[in-house]
Each structure stands twice: as structure tokens, then as C-alpha cells.
Amino acid sequence: MMVQAVAQGEDVPFHIKNVSQSVGSAATGSPTATLDLKTDLNTHFKKTHTTTINGKTVYVSGVFDNEQNAFMSVWVEGDAKPQILNIAGLLEAEGSVTIGGKEHAVEIQANPLKPKRSRINIYDPNGDEESAIRLGSLLNKIQAAGLAIKIGGTDYRIFYTDGVGDGPKLDPTKRLFSIITTDAEGDIHVFLVLESLVPSDKIAVFKVLNDKRLGLKQVNGKLEIYDNP
């Protein structure tokens, strides 16, 4: 079942599917790509959108959890980890992040007719706009930050990230793989695979867009990726 990323009937330009189980396995095959489970973990957070707020370099990106929720991340240079905001929550009420020791308000100005033109605004403590990010631009940059792979002739990007727990905050016990593609109509599709579903003794097979088959296997600290195993 494909669900809306922020649920509650919101018309958004991307859809998330939690691939809760594999559809089979394969004993052997030749991987078409590999992802390093150490060096590639969470790397997209600082490769997406960069701005300067309150004299600090700020990286804005996004992440998903295994319950098919979408989150915005705000990582201030010098901080040990990003601050996480639930997108669904921002559609209902203003959120906030701390930048340079000061609280900054965050809101989404939704455009229901053209969702990719929706804007994410960050305001300083006086209420003046510090940064405005078009949602479509941010989504494109997030997608481009992943490892490029091809499945069934379709281009995808794959990410390895911590999941999201209560807070919300990043949770390393809920790590997952996010596999993202854009269809002919411009909608973004996100397929989520929990790390715990990917074995080391065989290739687990999962269905992605149009039921194309994606194979995943963990070997010696690497994720091996297979096209139609």
C-alpha cells in the first residue's frame, strides 16, 4: 500500500512505502553497487541545503522513520547531531530550532495546488525571516545526495540512515535504508527497508516501483545492491 508521506490526507509530492518484508531470496548474484555501512551512514544530512543563520552554517535536509513519517533535519555546524522536526507537525503548528544559542521559529507555508512550491521558513527571535527554502528544491537536493543505483532500468538513490525515535531525535537502533525515485509525473517515491530485514547469508529481494525487484545483502560492513536478482 502506498501512503501519503504526511498522512491525514495531505496532498504532498512524495509517497512513502515501508517494505515490511522481502518477497523472496537469491543465493548468488553480482552486485551492481555497494554502500559502505560505516562511511555512508547519515552522510546526506550535510550534502543537501546549506545556509547561514545567526552567524552559523546550517545544513537543512530530511529523514524518514519506519512508520512512514517524514522529518526535516536542521544541523548547526558544531553540533553533534541534527535537530529533527516532524513535517506533519509543521503543517499544523509552528516548530522551533536552536541556532547559535537562540530559538528560531520554523513553519511550512503549504501550497495545496502545487505542493513543490510550498515553502519552509526559518525566522529569527524577532520574527524576521532568516531563510526560505522551497520544498521542491529541498526534495531534489535530498534525492541527489544519495548513492545512484539503477533498478529495472529506473534510476534510484539509496541512503543509509539512523531512524527517528521519540523527541523526535535520531535513533541508531532503528537504522534503515531509504530507496528513492521520481516517476514520470514528477512524484517522488520512497521505499523504506529496515536494516534488520537485510541478511548476510543471502540476498533478500524487495519490490520497489512497478514491482521491480531490488536485492540487498550485508557483507563485511558493506551493503551489496542487486538489480532484479
Explain what this protein looks like in three dimensions.
The chain has 229 residues and is mostly beta strands. It folds into two domains: 20-42 and 144-227, no CATH class; 44-138. Helices cover 7% and strands 52% of the residues. It contains two helices and 19 strands. A six-stranded mixed beta sheet has the order 1-2-16-15-14-13, with helices on one face. A hairpin with a 2-residue loop joins strand 18 and strand 19. The two termini are 23 Å apart.
In short:
The protein is mainly beta and 229 residues long. It has helices at residues 87-92, 135-144; strands spanning 3-4, 14-18, 24-26, 33-36, 49-53, 56-64, 70-76, 83-86, 95-99, 102-109, 119-123, 129-134, 147-151, 154-165, 169-182, 188-194, 203-207, 213-219, 222-227.
Average pLDDT over all residues: 89
Approximately how much helix is present in the residues?
Answer: under 10%
Biggest β-sheet, characterized? Answer: 6 strands, mixed
Task: Name the structural class.
Answer: mainly beta
The SSE order reads EEEEEEEEHEEEEHEEEEEEE
Radius of gyration: 18 Å
- The strand order across the widest sheet is 1-2-16-15-14-13
Question: In terms of per-residue confidence, which ranges show pLDDT below 50 for 5 or more consecutive residues?
Answer: 1-11
Report the principal-axis shape: globular
Number of domains: 2
Distance between the termini: 23 Å
Task: Describe the structure using short key phrases.
single chain; 229 residues; mainly beta; 2 domains; 6-stranded mixed β-sheet; 5-stranded antiparallel β-sheet; 2 helices; 19 strands; globular; disordered N terminus
